[in-house]
Design brief:
The protein is α/β, with parallel strands linked by helices. The protein is built from eleven helices and nine strands. Helix 8 links the parallel strand 5 and strand 6 (187-189).
Length: 287
């Protein structure tokens, strides 16, 4: 079983939903752990000034952010030594989340995936203590089936003691039977923007058992293309800090990468979280 369990444990309307559930003022002294980063570590030239020097794009990325979502694991396998090299290029406090391969989620559709899960975790073992958790993104066409979900997440849990987040994209996953699966296997249902329904904009209550909340911001109104305005990021910052107090930590990954907005939006979100919670370790400028 892989996974060191570490102690720190969206359209604008979707971000409004995130923030409205947590509308009480936040005391700076009560600020919670919040990690902010991007899906992948590409650095667009227009945002290079946000980062310090480094021997690689990842090393430079890690001068500004302390978490990244590895999306390439969704498309293809990597060798153990690749993960080891990535882990060696970032500071000790940096964490990776890794996206489960599409063969498991989109092609096999969770059926008969035990061997593929084992191979996946054998590879990401190279991240060592910097492995922070797994993202399971489900295809929009995959409806909830309680027996399939129970069998799959049991297999997943037998192989992974680290944090797990799931981003379901079919409305049938947002009901009490699915909620029981999240709680039983300590899975954080990810909050997503844009959200397919109001409940999808918020982490499931099982995030407490999951030891984190996981937020994926894809850009709105046009997914992957649109940037977030300052008001949207401020509302999100309040939600992250508030949710982190209850279910530390909050991880937020920006995925509006097509025009390079993710990096700038993530940096602005760092500033907004610092304003809301006086959060230590979130720089106002590049480190």
């Amino acid at each position: 079983m892989i996974g060191v369990v570490h102690p720190e444990y969206t359209a604008s309307s979707s971000i409004d939903t995130m923030a409205n559930r947590m509308s009480d003022p936040v005391s700076p002294r009560a600020a919670a752990p919040v990690r902010i980063g991007c899906a992948g570590w590409a650095i667009p030239s227009q945002h290079a000034h946000l980062f310090g020097e480094g021997d690689s794009h990842l090393a430079r990325y890690a001068t500004r952010f302390d978490v990244v979502e590895i999306n390439s694991t969704f498309y293809r396998p990597h060798q153990l030594r690749t993960f080891e090299r990535w882990a060696a290029s970032v500071p000790a406090q940096f964490r990776f989340s890794a996206k489960l391969p599409k063969w498991i989620t989109h092609e096999a559709r969770l059926y008969g995936t035990g061997d593929a899960l084992t191979a996946f975790f054998d590879g990401i073992a190279g991240l060592g203590a910097k492995f922070g958790g797994v993202l399971v993104q489900l295809p929009p066409s995959l409806a909830f089936d309680v027996r399939l979900a129970d069998r799959f997440f049991a297999m997943l849990r037998r192989r992974c003691a680290a944090r797990i987040a799931c981003e379901p994209r079919h409305a049938s996953w947002f009901g009490p039977e699915a909620d029981r699966i999240w709680t039983r296997y300590a899975i954080a249902r990810a909050a997503a923007d844009p959200a397919l329904m109001p409940a999808a904009a918020l982490p499931a209550d099982g995030a407490r058992e999951a030891r984190w909340s996981y937020w994926r911001c894809h850009g709105a109104p046009r997914m992957y293309y649109s940037r977030y305005d300052d008001d949207a990021l401020e509302r999100l910052a309040h939600a992250l800090v508030r949710e982190g107090r209850a279910r530390a930590p909050s991880w937020c990954l920006l995925d509006n990468t097509t025009h390079g907005h993710a990096v700038a939006d993530a940096a602005r979100l760092q500033d907004a979280v610092s304003e809301v919670g006086d959060h230590p370790g979130l720089p106002r400028t590049g480190r």
